[in-house]
Amino acid sequence: KLGPGQRPHRKMVQIATMYPKVDKYGYGVGTDRDTLLRSTGREVQLEGWVRREYEVLVRLHAAGADVPRPYLLGDRYVLMEYLGTAEASAPLLQRARLTPEQARQVFDRVLANIRIFLAHDVVHGDLSAFNILWDGAQGRIIDFPQSVDPRHNTSAFFLLARDVANVCRHFARYGIEASAADLATDLWSAYVRRTR
Fold first, then answer.
1. At 80, phi and psi to the nearest 5?
2. Among 66, 126, 143, 163, the one annotated catalytic
3. Is the pTM above the cut of 0.90?
4. Which of 38, 68, 145, 179 satisfies CB 3.0 to 4.6 Å to 49 for a cystine?
C-alpha cells in the first residue's frame, strides 16, 4: 500500500546486460555463456535475478537500509518505491553536486549502509555513485541483482573492497580522504567476527 504522495517505480531487468557478470558473481562458475544459456535458459536466469533483487530489497529495507521499498515481485520486474518528482526521477549521485558538509554526511551514510548490508549477509558487488539515487535530501542505493551472500561466495571480500574503493574514489572529489583498503578490511573483519 502506497502512502500519500508515493509513486511506485517498475524496474524491468534485461538479461542481456547480466551475462558479463555471471562468473564474477558466482552464477554459472565454470561454464561459458553458451553453456549457461543451454543449461538454464534465459527465462530461468532472468527470474533468478529478478527474484534475487526483490528478496535482497525486502531484507535490507526491513533492516533500515537506504534502499527502495519493494512492493511487488513480477515475472520480469520488481515494483519498488520511486524517488524523485512528478517530472523526473532522482538523479544518480554521480551527477549530483553536494556541499562539503553534504558529501561527508552522504559518505558516512553510504558506509553505514554497507555495514547494514554485511550484517544481513549482502555484498552489493557493483556499488558506485552510479547505483545511488540522490534527490537533494535523501539517497537510495539501487541495483542488487548481482549482489552476493558472503557466506557462500569466495569473491565476496574482493567485491566488497571494490565497492568501498568506488565509494571512496567518488567522495575524494569532495576532499574526503579515506583508505578504501583499511575501510574494507575493517568492515570485513567485523563481519567475520560476527559470523564465527
1. -140, 170
2. 126
3. no
4. 145
